[in-house]
């Protein structure tokens, strides 16, 4: 990495930290402090120890800060798997830790924060804006704050006003988190050298995108990113953040947004932001996916002659905060006598039964559909426990959705491989999105040998599974991330908005 003018900002006192959560407000299961502890919760110097060299956004910040020879002051880094609203107690605890550590590290030259953008806590619908407001109150208006966001953030004008520069991932699946962390540090270096006068503009189309329509390689987002790449050639442009939004976090500003930051050119920033927002809205009809029933999907997958077919259970999109225990696809595979199919279900009760029975035991038990009424009903099956594991694995992909937030080591809790007729069921204590083939391989399931694999994801599975996929079939299943957004009782969302109105 070449650091032009590095010596000018050498020794700068820069705080680094973050709180990340993608909140599904329609989910009954709350997110507690224990959920952050179970996934990623680091204080002070442990952030550097744990995140340096990782492919996370904050890892990119840490690595860059070290190369810039800044006096890096790590505060708090917390990330939990997507789920329901963050409890008031958890939010207060995390925010208090971040605020106290910021205050203890004054005087400061800069603040780098990794946030999500779609976090909702009890009593706080715009958590990211509240976090930055608290930081701004401590460090003052003259200290630059640069924020890195997930591209699924629901961004308010208040957050834009509080932040000097906002940056977002450009890809979904999120394979560029580290690169965007490096970019955030580079912009901070330019701010510390007083090279920039950032001016940001915000535009928001009256649109909601279901998770299934937020792939950045597909329309409508691919069109917006293509035009944004052209705009970035303008040397007056510092950054462009294209946010797809997260439709399942009910807040006032839920949905896509565009933030363009220029070097002192406010009108230009607004013109570009409005242009990109209008482009996204004009192509809104391409954001309406088409699905088939699980039974039809299984029948279609059985016709494939080579390689595994991906059966996409996007309504039970774990990365979007669902329970990960919907069994619609399992029922369809068993009914159609599939010879080699695989599904992962988060079901700690079933895991416990398998562990008590032991490897090679035959068990009869109910699996899936236990957390709520959104994801179908449990299915009673009889099968053989082929293997047990502690659920810890290292990702095969260096850049993937896992690594973008949590690092390369994943903890699923205890696991069991249950073989039922011709179907492999990987049972996990903790719900874990299908973002790396090592999730299956670590326990002995060979992904490439499967006739079909159910992936509980909307887009994020593609980085790992597309290289081995013979075909992709989108299923219409039960779940909290259904593409049919009219199923959800929005209370806070600004209306009218397409496609609801």
Written account of the structure:
The chain has 16 helices and 19 strands. It is α/β, with parallel strands linked by helices. It has 2 domains: 280 residues, Response regulator (Rossmann fold, 3-Layer(aba) Sandwich), CATH 3.40.50; 189 residues, no CATH class. The strands form 4 sheets. Strands 12-13-16-17-11-18-10-19 form an 8-stranded mixed beta sheet, with helices on one face. Strands 2-3-1-4-5-6 form a 6-stranded mixed beta sheet, with helices on both faces. A 3-stranded antiparallel beta sheet has the order 7-9-8.
How do the strands and helices of this protein lay out in sequence?
Elements: H1 6-9, E1 13-20, H2 33-39, E2 40-43, H3 45-51, H4 57-67, E3 71-79, H5 88-104, E4 110-115, H6 127-139, E5 145-149, H7 157-162, E6 165-168, H8 177-192, E7 198-203, H9 221-231, E8 237-243, E9 257-263, H10 266-282, H11 294-301, E10 309-312, H12 328-335, E11 341-346, H13 348-357, E12 362-367, E13 379-389, E14 392-394, H14 401-405, E15 409-411, E16 415-420, E17 423-428, H15 438-441, E18 452-455, H16 462-465, E19 471-474
Parallel strand pairs: 1-3, 1-4, 4-5, 5-6, 10-18, 10-19, 11-17, 11-18
Antiparallel strand pairs: 2-3, 7-9, 8-9, 12-13, 13-16, 14-15, 16-17
Helix pairs in contact: 4-8, 5-6, 9-10
Brief summary:
By secondary structure, this protein is an alpha/beta fold.
Key features of this structure:
alpha/beta, Rossmann fold, 8-stranded mixed β-sheet, 6-stranded mixed β-sheet
Structural class: alpha/beta
Give the low-pLDDT segments. 1-7
DSSP summary, beta strand count:
19
Instruction: Give the termini distance in whole angstroms.
Output: 49 Å
- The CATH class label of the largest domain is Alpha Beta
Report the C-alpha radius of gyration, rounded. 23 Å
- Can you tell me the CATH topology of the largest domain? Rossmann fold
């Amino acid at each position: 990495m070449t650091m032009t003018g590095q010596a000018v900002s050498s020794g700068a006192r820069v705080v680094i930290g973050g709180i990340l959560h993608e909140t599904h407000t329609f989910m009954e299961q709350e997110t507690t402090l224990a959920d952050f502890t179970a996934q990623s919760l680091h204080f002070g110097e442990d952030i550097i120890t744990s995140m340096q060299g990782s492919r996370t956004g904050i890892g990119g910040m840490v690595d860059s800060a070290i190369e810039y020879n800044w006096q890096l002051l790590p505060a708090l880094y917390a990330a939990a798997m997507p789920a329901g609203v963050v409890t008031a107690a958890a939010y207060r605890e995390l925010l208090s830790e971040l605020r106290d550590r910021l205050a203890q590290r004054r005087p400061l030259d800069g603040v780098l924060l990794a946030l999500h953008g779609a976090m909702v806590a009890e009593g706080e619908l715009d958590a990211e804006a509240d976090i930055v407001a608290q930081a701004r109150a401590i460090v003052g208006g003259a200290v630059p704050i640069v924020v890195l966001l997930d591209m699924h953030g629901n961004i308010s004008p208040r957050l834009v006003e509080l932040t000097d520069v906002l940056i977002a991932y450009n890809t979904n699946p999120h394979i560029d988190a580290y690169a965007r962390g490096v970019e955030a540090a580079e912009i901070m270096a330019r701010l510390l050298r007083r090279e920039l006068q950032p001016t940001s503009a915000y535009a928001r189309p009256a649109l909601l995108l279901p998770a299934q329509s937020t792939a950045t390689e597909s329309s409508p987002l691919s069109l917006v990113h293509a035009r944004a790449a052209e705009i970035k050639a303008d040397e007056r442009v510092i950054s462009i953040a294209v946010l797809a939004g997260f439709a399942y976090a009910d807040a006032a500003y839920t949905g896509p947004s565009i933030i363009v930051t220029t070097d002192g050119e406010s009108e230009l920033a607004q013109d570009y932001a409005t242009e990109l927002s209008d482009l996204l809205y004009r192509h809104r009809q391409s954001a309406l996916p088409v699905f088939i029933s699980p039974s039809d999907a299984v029948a279609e997958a059985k016709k494939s002659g080579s390689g595994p077919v991906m059966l996409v259970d996007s309504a039970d999109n774990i990365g979007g905060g669902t329970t990960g225990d919907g069994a619609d696809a399992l029922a369809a595979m068993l009914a159609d006598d599939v010879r080699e199919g695989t599904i992962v279900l988060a079901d700690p009760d079933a895991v416990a039964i398998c562990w008590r029975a032991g490897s090679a035991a035959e068990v009869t038990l109910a699996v899936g559909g236990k957390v709520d009424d959104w994801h179908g009903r449990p299915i009673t099956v009889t099968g053989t426990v082929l293997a047990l594991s502690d659920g810890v694995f290292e990702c095969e992909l260096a850049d993937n959705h896992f690594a973008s937030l949590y690092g390369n080591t994943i903890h699923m809790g205890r696991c069991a491989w249950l073989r039922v007729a011709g179907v492999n069921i990987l049972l996990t204590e903790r719900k874990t999105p299908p973002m790396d083939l090592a999730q299956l391989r670590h326990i002995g399931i060979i992904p490439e040998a499967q006739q079909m694999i159910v992936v509980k994801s909307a887009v994020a599975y593609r980085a790992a599974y597309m290289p081995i996929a013979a075909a992709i079939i989108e299923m219409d299943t039960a779940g909290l991330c259904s593409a049919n957004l009219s199923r959800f009782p929005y209370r806070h969302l600004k209306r009218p908005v397409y496609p609801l109105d």
